Amino acid sequence: MKILFIGDIVARPGREVVKEVLPNIIKKQKIDLVIANAENLAHGRGATKDTIKEMLDAGVNYFTSGDHIFWQHSFEDEIDSLPVLRPANFPGDLPGKGYTLIDAGKNGQILLINLLGRVFLNERLDDPFRKADEILNLFLDDDQIKYKIIDFHAECSSEKYAFAYYMDGRVDAVVGSHTHVPTCDNIVLPSKTLYISDIGMTGIIDSVLGVKNDIIIQYYLSGLNQKFEWENTGRKAFRSVILDTVLNTIERFDNIL
Ligand SMILES: [Fe+2]
Ligand SMILES: [Fe+2]
């Protein structure tokens, strides 16, 4: 089975890139399942039912997310009816769920988990390491599950590596998201877990992580907060990785448009 995992899709330009290239990639690369991070889908901040539907129509099968997922407040009422995870280690009883089983037909069940790192992010989160233990323990004896993937949405590469080695041999893949910057450290860890620190964003790359350059430069020069506006022009990138469950490989699959 080949799983395509797309990093943070940023705002309308990111959605346009996905619509433009994904159907062909699925055909040419013989992709069986597409997962994407949805936390920046709508205006770069969170997701909506409509933007999720747009991406489902383009070929995405399931979504993970991250710290921004509830920035569109309407999404709190929508998430339970959509194939979207929110981080499992948000505290309390938020809507949505942090893990799911995806039925991949002849390829069996896939356990998909979404967790948020804490370093430089949000001190109110539950411990993602112990939350991963807790979730994996629920499925220890489930032999219907053929593959386990975690989207570890985090800022800090050392936390990502520590988490990946903690998971090595216990899940099939740990892929990173959130920084919007692609890394080239895709690797098979010693106990066979596939890993990459960050898939990177899909959207306008002539920007500061998707936001207009001038605004962020002024943010740093002036010392004052600025209203963020998302870049609409410039070069676009499609950033993803392909997980081959038979060969046990993780390869970058990028496209600059
Ligand atoms: Fe994020
Ligand atoms: Fe993001």
Automatic annotation (TrEMBL):
Binding of Fe cation 1, residues: 8, 39-40, 180
UniProt KW keywords: Metal-binding
Any GO MF annotation of the entry: 2',3'-cyclic-nucleotide 3'-phosphodiesterase activity
Record flagged with keyword Metal-binding: yes
InterPro entries: Metallo-depent_PP-like (IPR029052), YmdB-like (IPR005235)
Catalytic center residues: 68 (proton donor)
Top-level taxon: Bacteria
Positions with a binding annotation for Fe cation 2: 39, 67, 153, 178
Name of this chain's protein: Metallophosphoesterase
Lineage of producing organism: Bacteria, Katanobacteria
